[in-house]
Design goal:
Length: 258
């Protein structure tokens, strides 16, 4: 029996269980991670307006749905049969006539596109350079590839070389991630994702000792039962390398062009 499962899904749409392999909407305990990923999709959606986009490793499908709100067309690609069926039923036609889902490996799915989106997945790969080269072949000389990955410096415990996430093959620092992308693309813009608003205030509270106060006051469960579901995409901010120290970022987002 899964510890957490999606709540209140549309009729006929099977709920997905939270395994740690992918993030999910409609799970209050997972809301921090869902919003952390959602804000990046929302930023990319503005850049793919009117374009043909592919959302590689689309998982539950919420990101493909966000992209399809502005894109000409979107294909969400995922090899997992449960995720594929869930996404198809929840977000595909007739809900989004310009959105379809393909059950296939990201390494082999091949269809011309103006943009490829590949978020929070490259750290799962044994062959990241080969996969990026495949994406470049799909977008041609005028397209764009968006890639994101967590920052090992803020994901892993201080001093550790990696986190304990069993799904991750390799976790990147900023320079290493940029170098990986530049091995395939001639133009790479690197951005970082940071806490803002409520999460910025929470980070400051932690520095001031909040973690030593709430257990003594027996506020932990009550506070985080309210705080975690209340997190919004606006509690994160995307910043360029010129505006922020990317070593302190939560995630890196690379905008890659041939």
């Amino acid at each position: 029996m899964p510890l957490y499962e999606q709540r209140e899904q549309p009729e006929g749409v099977p709920a997905l269980a939270l395994t740690g392999e992918r993030t999910l909407p409609d799970v209050p305990e997972e809301n921090y991670w869902y919003r952390r990923h959602l804000v990046v999709y929302e930023g990319i959606a503005k850049q793919v307006a009117g374009k043909r986009a592919i959302d590689m490793a689309c998982g539950e499908g919420y990101g493909s749905d966000v992209l399809a709100a502005s894109a000409q067309s979107v294909v969400g690609v995922d090899a997992n049969p449960e995720a594929h069926e869930h996404a198809r039923l929840k977000y595909g036609p007739p809900i989004r006539p310009n959105l379809r889902f393909a059950r296939e490996l990201v390494e082999t799915f091949s269809e011309p596109a103006d943009a490829v989106v590949f978020l929070q997945t490259i750290e799962h790969l044994q062959n990241p350079g080969e996969v990026l080269a495949h994406f470049r072949s799909l977008v041609g000389e005028q397209g764009v590839v968006f890639v994101s990955t967590p920052n090992v410096l803020t994901l892993a415990p201080k001093g550790a070389k990696r986190s304990d996430n069993p799904w991750h093959v390799h976790e990147y620092e900023a320079d290493e991630f940029e170098l990986l992308c530049r091995g395939t693309f001639s133009r790479v813009e690197l951005y970082g994702l940071f806490h803002a608003r409520k999460l910025g205030a929470h980070a400051l509270a932690l520095k001031l000792g909040w973690d030593s106060i709430h257990p003594r006051l027996r506020l932990t469960k009550a506070f985080y039962s309210w705080f975690t579901p209340a997190i919004a995409a606006s509690d994160f901010a995307l910043r360029s390398a010129e505006r922020a120290d990317l070593d302190a970022a939560l995630d890196f987002i690379a905008v890659c062009r041939p």
